[in-house]
């Protein structure tokens, strides 16, 4: 009895985490948004303890920040953290791409084709929310095609945190070339040319990072004393 209660609690906490992480990844809850427990309880028809556990677990994953007396809000990664996350993605996604064989591509062919069609459609319709969702879904999909569950778990966290970074630091609107770059990575993988796929993934991630305003001037550290002194 106790064990099954434990499992159902875990499932419920996971459900709440999934809904919140998805809303954050899709920019429905932008960085800095206050996450008010009572509202989450109401909206998700959830139990308060479960919501608290979900927020605490998201805080351990750095997706949510909990501050004493201020409660929880969606994290606002610093420029430095953003660079670190991209460095981590280069390492993890290299592992993902190295693990994908043409056989695995064929096994997932239907899903891959449906996904690429959805990306094309979102780009054609200039549907910003759909573009953000589909472009990051590509990376999750490759993780699953690789069949390495550990890489999938790490990547899931990095992708949600990447979407926070894009929301905070993206210079322009979503670039339309990304979809083509995804296609080129897939082409190399379908032919079994993993070295080329690794190089293309690396180029793609460098390109994504270059679209972000991560130079220090972009997010200056405010010196309170100096700021106040200059007023007088
Ligand atoms: Zn991409």
TrEMBL record:
InterPro entries found in the cross-reference section: GntR_C, TF_FadR/GntR_C, Tscrpt_reg_HTH_GntR, WH-like_DNA-bd_sf, WH_DNA-bd_sf
Pfam families documented for this protein: FCD, GntR
Is Transcription one of the keywords?
yes
Q: Where is the HTH gntR-type domain?
A: 10-77
Superkingdom of the source species: Bacteria
Q: What does the record give under GO molecular function?
A: DNA binding; DNA-binding transcription factor activity
Query: What UniProt keywords apply to this chain's record, in alphabetical order?
Result: DNA-binding, Transcription, Transcription regulation
Q: What is this protein called?
A: GntR family transcriptional regulator
Q: From which source organism is this entry? A: Marinobacter nanhaiticus D15-8W
